[in-house]
Structures are given as C-alpha cells and as structure tokens.
Amino acid sequence: MRAFASYLVLLLAMPLAAIAVVSPANEYRAQGIAAPDCDGPLQVLIFAVPAVLIYGAGALLAYRAGQRFHRLVSLLCLIIALATVPNIAEAVHELCRNAADGECRG
C-alpha cells in the first residue's frame, strides 16, 4: 500500500514536472523580444523546485528498495529531476540579470 501511494504521488506530480521543464524563464526572449520578464523566473521556480524535490526523493527511495522494477523507477525519477535543473539554472540567471540591471523593482 505504501509503494502504491508513493507511485501515485509521482504520477500526480508529472504535470508539475512537465510545466517545470517546458516553461521559459523569460517569455519575451523566448519570443525573440529583448525585454526583461520580471515575474517569469519566479513562475519557473514555483514549479521546478518542488518537481526536483519530489522526483529526487522518489529516485532515492525507489533505489533503496532494491528490486529491478524499483531501480527502473529510480532511473526515470532521476531523469525527470535532472531535466528540470537547466531550467532552474536559467531562472536563477535571469533573476540575477534582472537584479543587476535594476529593471525589475517593485
């Protein structure tokens, strides 16, 4: 029952991870416009950080179970967690760029 609940959490977090992977840190630059996006990086981080935490923990816990199926699930969780890391790095870079330029002051 506990393994079923864990897999259910991973399955329900899949849309969260999908949004975290595909959302751009700066929507304007993704469209080819050179303008700052003051709320874009935070929108990426809201989805990406929980996805990395959920799938990172899922990878660790599934790997510790030791069976072949669990190791496969662990590998898939690790791939999903690592797929979100470049988007987190881009969002943090965009936040630092906005702070250095002083363009996004509330």
Can you describe this structure?
This protein has 106 residues and is an all-alpha fold. The chain contains five helices and no strands. The protein has helices at 2-12, 14-22, 27-30, 40-65, 68-101. The chain is elongated and about 50 Å long. The N and C termini lie far apart (48 Å). The model has no long low-confidence stretch (mean pLDDT 88).
Key attributes of the depicted protein:
mainly alpha, 106 residues
Using only CA atoms, what is the Rg? Answer: 17 Å
Could you tell me the mean pLDDT? 88
Helicity range: over 70%
Order of helices and strands: HHHHH
Structural class: mainly alpha
Distance from N terminus to C terminus (CA atoms, Å) equals 48 Å
Strand proportion: under 5%
Q: How many strands, what sense, and barrel or not for the largest sheet?
A: none
Number of strands: 0
Which term fits the overall shape?
A: elongated
**Weakly predicted, low-confidence segments:** none
Helices, by number, come to 5
Please render the helix and strand layout as text.
Elements: H1 2-12, H2 14-22, H3 27-30, H4 40-65, H5 68-101
Helix pairs in contact: 2-4, 2-5, 4-5
